[in-house]
Amino acid sequence: MGKAIYFFGAGHADGEHSQKELLGGKGAGLAEMTRLGIPVPPGFTITTEVCNEFYASGGKLTDALKTEVAATLERVSAIVGTRFGDAQSPLLVSVRSGARASMPGMMDTILNLGLNDTIVAGLAAKTGNRKFALDAFRRFIMLYSGVVLEVPRDKFEHALVSARRKAATDLGIDPSRYTSAELERKVPDSKLDEPALEQLIAEEKAIVLKETGKPFPEDPMEQLWGAIGAVFRSWHNPRAKVYRAMHDIPENWGTACNVQAMVFGNLGDDSGTGVAFTRDPSTGEKRFFGEWLPNAQGEDVVAGVRTPLPVSKGGGDDANSLEVKMPACYTVLVDIYQKLEKHFRDMQDIEFTIQSGTLYMLQCRNGKRTGKASVRIAVEMAREGLISEKEAILRVDPSSIDQLLHPSIDPNAPKKFLARGLPASPGAASGHVVFHADEAERLAGRGKPVILVRAETSPEDIHGMKAARGILTARGGMTSHAAVVARGMGKSCVAGCSSIAIRYETSEMHISVYDSAGHPAETVVVKAGDMITLDGGTGSVFLGAVPTVPAALSGEFGVLMEWADKVRKLRVRANADTPLDARTARNFGAEGIGLCRTEHMFFDDERILAVREMILAGDQAARKQAVNKLLPFQRADFVGVFREMAGLPVTIRLLDPPLHEFLPHEPEQVAQLAQTMGVSRDTLQRKVEELTEYNPMLGHRGCRLAITYPEIYEMQVRAILEAACEVASQGVEVKPEIMIPIAMTKKELLITKELTEKVAKEVFDQAGRTLEYHFGTMIELPRAAIMAHELAEPAEFFSFGTNDLTQTTLGISRDDAGRFLGAYVEAGIFAKDPFQTVDVQGVGALVEMARERGRKTRPNIKLGICGEHGGDPTSIDFFGKAGLDYVSCSPFRVPIARLAAAQVALKLTGAKNESSST
Amino acid sequence: MGKAIYFFGAGHADGEHSQKELLGGKGAGLAEMTRLGIPVPPGFTITTEVCNEFYASGGKLTDALKTEVAATLERVSAIVGTRFGDAQSPLLVSVRSGARASMPGMMDTILNLGLNDTIVAGLAAKTGNRKFALDAFRRFIMLYSGVVLEVPRDKFEHALVSARRKAATDLGIDPSRYTSAELERKVPDSKLDEPALEQLIAEEKAIVLKETGKPFPEDPMEQLWGAIGAVFRSWHNPRAKVYRAMHDIPENWGTACNVQAMVFGNLGDDSGTGVAFTRDPSTGEKRFFGEWLPNAQGEDVVAGVRTPLPVSKGGGDDANSLEVKMPACYTVLVDIYQKLEKHFRDMQDIEFTIQSGTLYMLQCRNGKRTGKASVRIAVEMAREGLISEKEAILRVDPSSIDQLLHPSIDPNAPKKFLARGLPASPGAASGHVVFHADEAERLAGRGKPVILVRAETSPEDIHGMKAARGILTARGGMTSHAAVVARGMGKSCVAGCSSIAIRYETSEMHISVYDSAGHPAETVVVKAGDMITLDGGTGSVFLGAVPTVPAALSGEFGVLMEWADKVRKLRVRANADTPLDARTARNFGAEGIGLCRTEHMFFDDERILAVREMILAGDQAARKQAVNKLLPFQRADFVGVFREMAGLPVTIRLLDPPLHEFLPHEPEQVAQLAQTMGVSRDTLQRKVEELTEYNPMLGHRGCRLAITYPEIYEMQVRAILEAACEVASQGVEVKPEIMIPIAMTKKELLITKELTEKVAKEVFDQAGRTLEYHFGTMIELPRAAIMAHELAEPAEFFSFGTNDLTQTTLGISRDDAGRFLGAYVEAGIFAKDPFQTVDVQGVGALVEMARERGRKTRPNIKLGICGEHGGDPTSIDFFGKAGLDYVSCSPFRVPIARLAAAQVALKLTGAKNESSST
Question: Which of B720, B710, B740 is nearest to B650 (CA)?
């Protein structure tokens, strides 16, 4: 282990900004600010290595460390002129965690450490402010007891409420008329007088004795060891673990611990505290944006009891702005923030405290921002010359721009919250509630906006989903049918909203609405036709039509996309099944269609009957006849798609799902269909049962259908190539690619390729022209990846179907995984839902194996990916590194993919986002 | 290409027996017999290389070949003294296919080639037997037209029937009273007189002209080219393709073509023809066993119109035996067969023809035999010193001994055939039909033998399957639930019997019985309580109780097993869930239990309620309480198993199936259970729906249950270790191995291992003793194989669950695969059902990857396999080569596995079965 403690103070710091791994973000920021000559209260950082040592040794702090801490405290004393533990001139310190990555609120902080009864008296004498000293002590006891001694915070609540009640009565307020939260606003802690504070301190100490069996530690050094240990321990508290799992932060990073001389913003009206951003974190506008409170400690700003005031003028309350109230301090602050932004080359989130007219900086870090702000800041900083275009590209989290591409709820509109589900597909949408797909289509046809509400959706609901503005389901996860289809359509969707109970019989849903404490407060009944609003970005459902704000693709957004396109190597295609989807995709910058699913085309009312005839056909002749009824429809679909994608490749996947997906399963529907089709109910029912599968995902589907019923693929190939010839004859460039699903053997491909070539010859002979087309396969089964060297003989391209490849490699059904995937992520078994972010170790290994083996046979084989992962930035990073040629994703995610593709290209060439690691 | 033609005749042969690849089995046999000085009509073999050349050139025979054939025919002429195409002294030839492996009846043969009108007259003159000559010609035209000219055989049928009718009338028989089959027996072809034959020849020629548009070829050389081409083409006829697919014969082997001088067994009473085996092919007894017909051609013996006579005395009709009728020929034949068996060191299947008192050999090859005969012959030959013990081991096809281990239908008993399904689990069984598992258990409890008949079975039927003598299902394949469980229990099972329709409402089944032509002949109604008999070895179902013959594990069988055990390296364990299974397994020689499934124990009446309580429990406490009710049952199960397996390892797999398998799904059953459990029907129904999965195979099962409900595995581990301690305290050696299903990450194993160790500590503390146990995992997901290096950190052993690994690697649901696997095997996509024989390229690659990676982390990791493949000889061959430590299979397949394991061990050390390649 290297150096354990890094001192900072009075213009000198042992550490520097590049040492974040060792010092954590906060420690590195404090060191760097100190080096820059910015006023920072002195202190020191205990390294993350010590934290890891602490865990390795089972939770012990060594004597050597204690000696060094004591010595470093002397250096701090030398600067501030007070001494830790000295009753006459006491030095108080804060003890804060600080990991390499920001984990806001996840770990623990202790303020005002170093107080006991004697020292409080000294502090009172020294500051001439006994109330301040007492207030600091009672805050310290409560914080310390909670964090270090693990006394639950609510144990102290009663004492605090009593003190407030007493203070209220003293102020002539009847406390019995208010809830405790109201009372806290009426009687802020500053209204507690000295006797009240003394009483509170005594009560707190009594509570500690009762709860822990030991008196509150009076020795400041003992307090400090306890606090340092608690900070290290907090790295493993449950909140922190979940946060790390969510944000891919490795456990072995550990946290640093910062011990710093306290400065007080609550010493009077010439003191204060505040937070600010160097640019607007919401819009990205270049203006200094912050809030402050006079005579307050940091936690008061966060607590929200007092309303903070603007730092700068132009923020609504100019008279109370820091700029007006303390112009000298403000000038210093402006100077500092400009220096910091220039130095760190990114928008900064800063914390400051003014103690008796002197400004101190307590923290600086890269500020969190909205997607919109992120784009604007990156582009503007590049234009200002602060960063390069490449850095600008690396600055924007691709996931964050999703919100830019959809309309959103007006944040200022009043709304009645109903329920929260999963944010399955972003965007806001209002409409009349309908419970059936047919009804959705009917009402939408009359121009009414509708929201389709279902327990869950199935392929039979597609037309209703298409007609609806948004989809709400009671069951299913982020990768349920509703979620996947809605994202593909770019439609708002809230899925798995378990607090709603749908009663189809009475066309209503019952929603249990919970109060803020999580208890059911009321049951709201929403009937068909009532208006609701979905916020697919947050998963919220509101009653009525809440006003929305349209997507504003700002000018900076377009600029950023242009820059991204210049550097990326991965092509970006879209998954699009219809001419409309294709147009949307092209507008978003798609460079082709990577997956055109032909089965969605089968669900249209006019067609589904022919599909069903085909399924019920007793022999090949009857089947062929039924199939051929579909030919003109499919051809027309493809004509439209090819026209939209003129000049760009279009990969069309032949029929994939098992046939039973096209038959109804409910008895009434079966009866009705039997009548329509003129067959007996029994016959139809038997067929339905015969086709029903135990595990349809692993069933008779994809090219397996072509082995048993070649006429389906024959018709589809004919439709594709006839459409291509038709469009080509109009002078439009067409680039069809025929893709076989679920293949795992060379032989399957040889059989389907022979069929394809036979049909192609017939079509070209008839059309009197030929055109180039490509034949390839999906890689969606482990065996296909393993046998890629053989599959690459007939296949000219591979498209990784990572949805199914994940299902089979991990043995997890996407539709059923909701029951345990949450627990899996929580237990740290998976860092993320493997259906959202590709499992690099397992699925990724097969992708790499297939790439290697496929290229060995056919060096120029084209490799793409068309699963949901194609729109996930982390996955795109992997696919880029794995050397694929393109990714294909939902049209609405194309810009995200373009950006993510640019980022991985930059990373591969060694470019770094030098600031994003602040 | 090397030499195209290999001559044989008069004691000289160009080829020899070792050249089977080039000459085919028949050609090599003829060459070898000629070399041995055995009388063989002279001829020559056109090599398999020529066949491949023929295909490569698109079906052409080269001029060079034609020249060489003509030259070689001259060599034949020189020996026999007749000339091909010579009208005075014609040489007739046979043209037969002959591939490297015997493919009986799959390819084509032409006899009497070289005849036309002129030559027939010459032949008549030379033999002085015009009727013989005409008969030879009309046979030749029909055979040649069918095989070479592709005129369907039935086109000739009418002419032949007319001739027979006329002959019948001439003989004073009224032909209108008989069917054509009966007529053929009444008027065998030998009764056709010369005018009838002449008439027939004329009609046949007319038919050929009409069907092909060309006259029948008169030029013998043209006939010969046609026949050679047809023999080569027959390699690709559909029958041959299917046969090759079934027997793993590569397409590129090709067939040789044998052209040989005809000898005639139908020249009078001093002529004849016959086939014989050098030992009894049914029992293996060392006796010369054959049949012959005087005055007949080879095809007459096969056609079955005349009843053949015994070759040797003691065969029932001594007076007509060859031994008595033609003692000189018989002596020659005995001499030859003894020479051949000694030379080829295996039981021979020989064909001979006696032409006017002279005996000729036409074929010799290793004889097909029953499993029983196979064992006896191998052991006796080894004892005779003819072969070594190792060769004896390699001589017996392990699959063939399956039939020895079960009772079988008495072949001589009269029986009424009802239906044929899949031979899902061997053995014969008779019993009363029952349609419900409960009823099966009830009646069996009263001592009645029952056959459980179901559309398909599910885990809820286990108790009924256990109680039944045999299981019959209307749906499902060789690896359906019924089939797998029945094989595990060693019970007869006929599965997927699609001609039966079960009506549960009326407790009867309707069986469509087909006539020999495949047309439905009648519908038999079998009611509950009626007696039926299953033959699980053939898939036949009979009405009534057909007498059976018990399994006779002959002394030779035991000897062979001993020899096998001496050489094998793979250990053989059994899959056994109960003490009874364990005992059976041990009796069959199992060296431990490789898979003890704990879930079957959950289905017992007393236990299922507690299981259901557990599932319905609202919280962990209630769940724990319900789970603990199961503890004593599980412990008792394990005590029994450990006792039976004293001193041997027992691998126990913790709960594997998804929980919904333990709940009823039919509305009535749900209602009934709700009442029993005192919950509302709605509550139960909701739970059932909530747990229902789209793809249960990929669902919430195996160790995923342990992540969400750790109390289940906790209970199971406790039951295992408490049982182990109890049994150990009685001085019995116990070797428990705890196995985690469906794991794919190290973390899952770490979590379950921690749980295991915690429980172990508690149990050992309480018992006051510790004992050694092992912790390991199944490898049944591709990801588990890929991550084997990590899984091997916590896991001390891997057991490959190749059933599930096949399902996931290939993306095929075992339960649903029946719909297309047949077509897949037929199309040559899979050589065999991958659930019966492991897919070496795909699944095998993952097994090898896991072995390699697992051993890298833990060099001494124990590797086994416990899927259905553990009892399949071809798969065992792979597992042996892959270096696993053991295979585990159904108790009844243990002997098969022991033998297969010995064979792979011998192959790995380079031992060869020198004769089996005859």
Answer: B720
